[in-house]
């Protein structure tokens, strides 16, 4: 399955010490890959947070409509039994799998390869935010510090 972690969890995995409450994922929107991803979410008891069917993500025009008309950058999935379990799927071009895969690393967790966006990719992604939050600006500062210590 073609998926990359690209939010707070990726920032933590790159070495920044901070809290995160959800898992932001960039998913290859190829229909077969997306179907496998949606099946996996269903097995994990994760359902759309909005009253929109998960299968709506399979329709590229509908995804574009959600971004344009609903001003949504992500499509959220939640566990109704545990609201602290949330997965956000990136919908914007800035968070697209095709773009983020170019700047990603593979780490092993529990013996499994997990793809995460690189420090450089996370910095670039957060710099592109239209309305960065304080935690995004802090992430940029911390990731830059870590990047400079990697290079020096």
Could you walk me through the main structural features you see in this protein, from its secondary elements to its overall organization?
This protein is of the alpha+beta class. The protein has a single domain, classed as Beta Polymerase, domain 2 (2-Layer Sandwich), CATH 3.30.460. It contains six helices and seven strands, in the order βαβαβαββαββαα. The strands form two sheets. A five-stranded mixed sheet has the order 1-2-5-4-3. A two-stranded antiparallel sheet has the order 6-7. A hairpin with a 2-residue loop joins β6 (104-109) and β7 (112-117). α5 (119-127) runs antiparallel to α6. It is globular.
Q: Gap between N and C termini, in Å?
A: 35 Å
What structural category do the secondary elements indicate? alpha+beta
Mean pLDDT: 94
Binned, the helix content reads 40-55%
Low-confidence stretches: none
What is the number of domains? Answer: 1
Strand order of the largest sheet: 1-2-5-4-3
Overall geometry: globular
**Could you say what the CATH architecture is?**
2-Layer Sandwich
Gyration radius, to the nearest Å?
15 Å
CATH fold name, please? Beta Polymerase, domain 2
CATH class type:
Alpha Beta
Total count of helical runs of at least 4 residues: 6
Binned strand content:
15-25%
| Topology pattern, helix = H, strand = E | EHEHEHEEHEEHH
Taking the sheet with the most strands, its summary is: 5 strands, mixed
Q: How many strands?
A: 7
InterPro entries: NT_sf
């Amino acid at each position: 399955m073609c998926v990359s972690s690209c939010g707070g969890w990726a920032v933590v995995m790159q070495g920044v010490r901070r809290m995160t409450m959800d898992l932001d994922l960039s998913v290859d929107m190829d229909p077969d890959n997306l179907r496998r991803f949606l099946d996996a979410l269903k097995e994990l008891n994760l359902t759309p947070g909005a009253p929109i069917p998960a299968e709506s993500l399979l329709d590229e025009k509908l995804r574009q409509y959600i971004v344009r008309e609903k001003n949504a950058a992500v499509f959220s999935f939640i566990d109704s039994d545990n609201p602290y379990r949330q997965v956000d799927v990136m919908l914007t071009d800035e968070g697209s799998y095709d773009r983020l895969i170019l700047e990603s690393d593979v780490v092993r967790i529990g013996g499994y390869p997990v793809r995460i966006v690189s420090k450089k990719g996370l910095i670039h992604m957060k710099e592109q935010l239209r309305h960065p939050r304080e935690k995004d600006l802090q992430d940029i500062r911390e990731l830059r510090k870590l990047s400079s210590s990697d290079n020096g």
